[in-house]
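User: tokens in, sequence out, please.
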């Protein structure tokens, strides 16, 4: 039973890779800040998932506050640093079996846009995560992990499409994590934004990702909808709702964020 709880906790608070997309989207875009320009983001997520396994009803409630800082090293290269604070509570048949919170693993990413032509662009984003989260509490991997995302964006005003294909390799310090979690994770997703009026966009997103649980074969899949409001030239506010399309994905997540550019 303890092993099942640790696996579930790791899946709630340690996603395979953290893409710094235009929140609330999961799928990233090829846009960069520009040389000498910066962006600070603060995003929050609250999620809930319920399932029955071997006759035991499990409910997982999770939350995350993620802060990120993007710096334009050149017109087409960004350095991105992100750090999450996570909370997770798991109940089995109403009894509390896990209750953890704290700092997760720190992410360092470099986004390079290498192709642009007639509204179409391509970018690559390699990155690493540093073991700043406590692996004994399910808050991190305990070792440096790495990954890469290939990003495509097509602008067809007023609609813009984004496509991501990503790979993550997780290194785990604890033997229990090595036995319970997959090291190699694949992700694929597509998103669209629609500017229905000046400074206001509707967004939609679907995607799937390898199941991090070695004992599970079904691939988690999600659908997301939301909106982004540009309050001023340098300030964005956003809201979103993300739902699971199958059992392994969290049933429902509510997202909100703020981004400030300077």
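Assistant: Sequence out:
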């Amino acid at each position: 039973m303890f092993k099942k709880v640790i696996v579930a906790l790791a899946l709630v608070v340690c996603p395979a890779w953290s893409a710094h997309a235009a929140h609330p989207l999961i799928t990233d875009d090829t846009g960069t800040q520009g040389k000498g320009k910066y962006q600070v983001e603060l995003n929050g997520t609250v999620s809930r998932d319920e399932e029955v396994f071997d006759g035991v009803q499990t409910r997982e409630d999770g939350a995350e506050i993620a802060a990120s800082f993007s710096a334009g090293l050149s017109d087409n290269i960004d350095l991105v640093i992100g750090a999450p604070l996570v909370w997770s509570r798991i109940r089995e048949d109403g009894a509390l079996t896990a209750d953890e919170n704290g700092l997760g693993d720190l992410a360092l990413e470099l986004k390079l846009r290498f192709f642009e032509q007639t509204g179409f662009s391509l970018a690559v984003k390699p990155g690493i995560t540093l073991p700043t989260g406590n692996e004994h509490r399910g808050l991190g991997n305990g070792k440096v992990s790495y990954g890469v995302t290939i990003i495509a964006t097509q602008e067809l005003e007023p609609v813009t499409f984004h496509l991501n294909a990503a790979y993550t390799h997780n290194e785990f310090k604890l033997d229990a994590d090595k036995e319970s979690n997959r090291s190699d994770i694949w992700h694929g997703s597509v998103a669209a934004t629609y500017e229905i009026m000046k400074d206001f966009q509707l967004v939609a997103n679907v995607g799937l990702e390898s199941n991090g649980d070695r004992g599970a074969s079904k691939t988690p899949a999600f659908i997301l909808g939301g909106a982004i409001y540009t309050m001023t030239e340098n300030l964005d506010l956003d809201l979103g709702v993300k739902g699971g399309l199958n059992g392994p994905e969290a049933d429902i997540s509510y997202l909100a964020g703020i981004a400030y550019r300077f």
